[in-house]
What we know:
The protein is α/β, with parallel strands linked by helices. The chain is built from ten helices and 14 strands. The radius of gyration is 19 Å and the shape is globular.
Amino acid sequence: MTAQRPILTVTLNPALDVSAHADRVVSGPKLRLSGVVTEPGGGGVNVARAVQRLGGDVRALVVLGGATGTRLAELLRGEGLGVIVHPVPGDTRQSLVVTDAAGAQFRFVLPGPEVADESPLISAIAMAAPPGALVVLSGSQPPGISADFPMRLAAALPDRQMIVDTSGAALDHVVTHSTGVSMLRMDEAEAESVAGRALLTSADTADFCESLVRAGSAQMVVAARGAEGSVLANVQGRWHAIPPMVPVISKTGAGDSFTAGFTLALAVGMDPAAALLAGTAAAAAAVMTPGTELCHQSDADRLLAACKIEQI
């Protein structure tokens, strides 16, 4: 078996995720919650957890502050993850997901602490990522972090492969600049927002992804198409990976599971098309799990053979 390259995930704006159930969510009366589960959350955190579930080795660099940050780090270490804490003043944010008896989900997210100085953070990431590593920058950015942070980080990691899955101003900056990013991933809504139009077919999505590759936004661009899977474009070609039909229990965590499966596949030497299939299988496995639970390796392995891929 090919040796796995090191994987480092970076989470700038993690959250302590609390999920619970209520009969109904209505204004006025106190809402009594049950089935409370507390988990570590945030894009890079969940990617790291999913990589570990898929059998890979990974370390997670997480920006943390206050008692909430301490609790989040304890939860990650309790799962056996290698955690690198980058401390900041203030308290790490919390999020609350409440599911009612009809299955509707209500998501409440508090703001994260401000990160006032980027330079020590970039230096810490560069020190934590050995040469040849895959570095996954995933999740939203906290207050104080500039929109060009992904580009600045990529410049500090010249001999690593950087995968970006972000949103907001940071995503806008990546798609409008030549950033040195290896792979950029977007969900369906983000891709259509950036494109400024509906992407009705897989060919539309492939055209969009290819335009970003040609513009130098990233060497590879992946855009999700919901239940239709994901599309990848690079200078070698364009592919559409299609998952099998599976029972959908919760879509939460599917994107992070995709990124985990994709990254791990690259880390063990697979080509981008094969990595697209692996990510698609992991995402399909994730939607079969409840709440914020991520993919299971047994499901991802079984679904991989049922995924289809076609060149566009």
